[in-house]
């Protein structure tokens, strides 16, 4: 699938401008054009009641703005009018935080067609702060998925059912999928554990009561896909994830309670890219906790080197979160099962273009709301951030099935020059990160990086996290 890349960033006067950065037809006009319409001038779905068709009006205004640049206008028109089955993904390379606030996913052409629903998948690119070029992970035949299901006050059983159904369907096609689940609700943990007794590739544990231990459990599971169903919030613009433990759930049953484990942006940034995670999904839903800035965490993860990170631009209703997750994982695991087939011999590198996996989940959200995409804007809330260049995975016939069965010790890392090992962890990158950490990096993140890099552990593990999680 070809890509159209539209760059949005500041000019010398700090005004937001845009131009065509890359496309099937090379740019002929490198001069950027200013974005005349500010976010505040675009229609919104917030109270008072929005006008009918506000989503369509928003998308039309974006189309008109972008059509000011002849190269961009031509690229968008070609993507919208391309033959069925040969769609181009449209990527917005966002070089300024202000550009994140535009809802590019609402883009609507002159024929009133939403490109992200009908013609061209839309995604976002986060400028990378860490250069991982040339680090192509090797897939050895088993896909690892880790899910953290821990949204206080929002039952996760329906979220789990959709995810596990997608896993079972993928297994039926021949792909090996192992799943690790961290669960906040005691009753749900018991149900999943009962299933795990019959499924040797399913492992369920309670959400630990320390942020450090949550990170360690994620690290030990070595996920390719990491899924969070939880709450999101922000302290002074710094996003974090809020996880509920079993004790939090019990406290809420008799009175007010808050999630006691917090994972901050820097903890996530410094761990997940070196760990070799391919995709992070932040399915953070509404349940009394604000999540308006979680999308910034998704951007930050992609900028730190995670190949793809998906988050919600705003608070999303629980039922919409369930439906999105159900269809998204069905599409994702089907795609991975198709692309990650064992090569007959030799080595094959395969590209992944993540945005088109969002087409079906977006359509499912629209269908769940009376098929009215023009007024119902929740189908545009999931936003996907990726790297500038397509993500690649290496398939090597000689390494297939080299990974140990669940419960068996992992083989020692292969000798040779530094690079991504089969489990996705490169001690060289981790060691380099240790030397580049800012002074305000959370101690938990430093300790975990030291563990990954094989450095000597601190003298003591330190006091238990205070109520509210690591600070």
TrEMBL record:
Name the segments for region: Disordered: 400-422, 449-471
Low complexity bias (residue ranges):
453-471
The CHAT domain sits at 57-338
Q: Name one Pfam family in it.
A: CHAT
Q: Domain of life of the organism in this record? A: Bacteria
Compositional bias segments (type: Pro residues): 406-416
**Name of the featured protein:** CHAT domain-containing protein
What is the native source organism of this protein?
Krasilnikovia cinnamomea
Task: Tell me the classification of the organism that encodes this protein.
Answer: Bacteria, Bacillati, Actinomycetota, Actinomycetes, Micromonosporales
């Amino acid at each position: 699938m070809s890509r159209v890349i539209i760059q949005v960033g500041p000019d010398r006067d700090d005004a937001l401008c845009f131009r065509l950065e890359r496309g099937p037809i090379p740019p002929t006009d490198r001069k950027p054009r200013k974005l005349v319409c500010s976010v505040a001038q675009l229609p919104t779905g917030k109270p008072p009641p929005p006008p009918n068709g506000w989503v369509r009006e928003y998308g039309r205004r974006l189309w008109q703005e972008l059509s000011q640049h002849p190269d961009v206008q031509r690229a968008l028109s070609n993507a919208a009018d391309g033959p069925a089955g040969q769609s181009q993904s449209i990527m917005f390379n966002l070089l300024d935080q202000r550009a994140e606030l535009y809802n590019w996913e609402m883009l609507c052409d002159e024929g009133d067609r939403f490109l992200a629903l009908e013609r061209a998948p839309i995604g976002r690119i986060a400028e990378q702060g860490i250069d991982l070029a040339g680090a192509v992970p090797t897939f050895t035949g088993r896909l690892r998925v880790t899910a953290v299901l821990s949204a206080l006050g929002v039952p996760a059983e329906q979220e789990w059912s959709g995810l596990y159904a997608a896993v079972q369907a993928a297994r039926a096609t021949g792909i090996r999928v192992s799943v690790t689940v961290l669960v906040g609700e005691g009753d749900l943990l018991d149900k999943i554990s009962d299933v795990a007794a019959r499924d040797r590739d399913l492992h369920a544990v309670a959400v630990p009561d320390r942020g450090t231990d949550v990170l360690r459990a994620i690290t030990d599971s070595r996920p390719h896909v990491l899924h969070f169903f939880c709450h999101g919030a922000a302290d002074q613009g710094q996003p974090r994830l809020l996880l509920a433990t079993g004790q939090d759930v019990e406290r809420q049953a008799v009175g007010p309670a808050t999630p006691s484990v917090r994972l901050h942006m820097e903890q996530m940034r410094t761990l997940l890219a070196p760990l070799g995670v391919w995709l992070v999904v932040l399915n953070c839903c509404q349940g009394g906790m604000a999540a308006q800035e979680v999308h910034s965490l998704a951007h930050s993860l992609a900028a730190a080197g995670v190949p793809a990170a998906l988050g919600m631009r705003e608070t999303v209703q629980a039922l919409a979160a369930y439906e999105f997750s159900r269809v998204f994982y069905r599409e994702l695991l089907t795609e991975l099962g198709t692309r990650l087939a064992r090569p007959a011999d030799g080595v094959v590198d395969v590209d992944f273009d993540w945005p088109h996996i969002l087409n079906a989940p977006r359509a499912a959200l629209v269908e769940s709301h009376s098929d009215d995409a023009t007024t119902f804007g929740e189908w545009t809330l999931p936003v996907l951030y990726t790297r500038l260049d397509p993500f690649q995975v290496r398939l090597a016939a000689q390494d297939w099935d080299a990974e140990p069965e669940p419960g068996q010790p992992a083989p020692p890392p292969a000798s040779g020059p530094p690079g991504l090992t089969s489990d996705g962890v490169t001690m060289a990158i981790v060691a380099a990160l240790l030397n580049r950490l800012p002074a305000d990096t959370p101690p938990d993140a430093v300790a975990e990086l030291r563990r990954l890099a094989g450095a000597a552990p601190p003298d003591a593990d330190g006091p238990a996290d205070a109520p509210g999680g690591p600070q």
